[in-house]
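Weekly structure sync, notes
Attendees: PL (lead), two postdocs, one rotation student
Agenda item 3: pending single-chain targets
PL asked that the sequence for the first pending target be pasted directly into the notes so everyone works from the same version. It is reproduced below exactly as submitted, 198 residues in total.
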Amino acid sequence: MSQQACTAFCASKGMPLAGIEYSSECYCGYSMSNGATNTTLLDASKCAMPCSDTTYSESCGGASALSLFQNTALYPNTVTLPTGWAYDACRVEGSTGRGLVGYTFASNSMTVETCVQTCNSKGFAIAGVEFGRECYCSNAWTNKGGAVATGCTSTCAGASYETCGGANRLSTYVKSSVSSSSTPQRRRRTIAGRIRLA
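Predicted structure, written out during the meeting:
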């Protein structure tokens, strides 16, 4: 293992993040996940384990710490939404039933685009994706659902670089004409991947 070996391997898989841990472990992904962050910097001594390939005298992470590398050219394009649609927020599922009850379907090839385009074509103005493969459409929230929350960390079944809700959490998108329980925001690309950092 070396820094070059790990970054080249991740690039060959089309993944922009490469992390090395414990001298010889290489991890690839589209973003940090499972509570990890690439904005919390550790002291250099935490990532001072020498790479198992000693040719370059490099450091390759540490105990539960990653030497992290990023190839920005490999990030996929942002999601293309129908005209008038924008990312809203991560929201809580209903507690006494589904929060969005107009139309629903599930697919092992689910993407954000698929869900939003379907809801749009059926005349709905709110779209939510949940558990990676479930799509819900409606024009209003019901059953005590819709509060802004965290926890949208599930990778979309049909696009590993997109986020499709989580456990009882929906990544929601709204038409600009719809009044949501919070002001719609410009869509952020929040992508779950396979990198970890403790």
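Discussion points:
- Residues 3-74 form one domain.
- The first strand starts at residue 17 and ends at 21.
Action: rotation student to compare against the earlier draft before next sync.
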